[in-house]
Amino acid sequence: MKRPPVHAWAAIKIQAWWRGTLVRRTLLHAALRAWIIQYWWRQTKVRLLKKRRRAALELYARQIWATVKLQSFIRMWLVRQRYCRLLKAVRTIQVSWRWHSCHTRGFFQGRYELTGNHLQLQLDIFLGSQVCRITDCIPFPIKN
């Protein structure tokens, strides 16, 4: 095989250099595009991760809020039950006290006036703080 002349050899060297430059430029552009895609993908993953974290945090906050609300309703219900029991006990005590008060503290006081043909009667009944006044005039039968 014959060796090419020197000037052809130089042309071959220049062509090889130029092809190498083109290949390196193409590889550089491909690497830059790959770097851009990787950067975009990383940013997208970060955004998705933030979105997932935010959704998880909101879910957790809603669960905590629901738990607190449920606990407050249960506490309110228990306090209301206790209040109703106390109210029932108070009413029972009041009814007993009022009955006892009316039946043990009530007393009679009265006066009467007797005339020839009738009886005038005034009776005061004291029931706690209330007074019942009965006034009546009873005629006597006249016998001949």
What's the count of strands?
A: 3
Mean pLDDT: 87
How far apart lie the N and C ends?
184 Å
Radius of gyration: 56 Å
Q: Give the fraction of residues assigned to helices.
A: 55-70%
Low-confidence stretches: none
Task: Give the number of domains.
Answer: 2
Description of the molecule:
- It holds the Pfam family IQ.
- GO terms for molecular function: calmodulin binding.
- Keywords: Repeat.
- This protein is of the alpha+beta class and 144 residues long.
- It folds into 2 domains: 6-105; 106-143, no CATH class.
- Helices cover 69% and strands 19% of the residues.
- It has 1 helix and 3 strands; from the N terminus they run H-E-E-E.
- The protein has one helix at 6-105; strands at 107-114, 118-127, 130-139.
- The protein has a 3-stranded antiparallel β-sheet with strand order 1-2-3.
- A hairpin with a 2-residue loop joins strand 2 (118-127) and strand 3.
- The chain is rod-shaped.
- It starts with 5 loop residues before the first helix and ends in a 5-residue tail after the last strand.
- 0% of the residues are buried.
Secondary-structure map:
Blueprint: H1 6-105, E1 107-114, E2 118-127, E3 130-139
Antiparallel strand pairs: 1-2, 2-3
Outline:
By secondary structure, this protein is of the alpha+beta class.
What labels would you give this structure?
144 residues; alpha+beta; 3-stranded antiparallel β-sheet; calmodulin binding; repeat; IQ domain-containing protein F5; IQCF
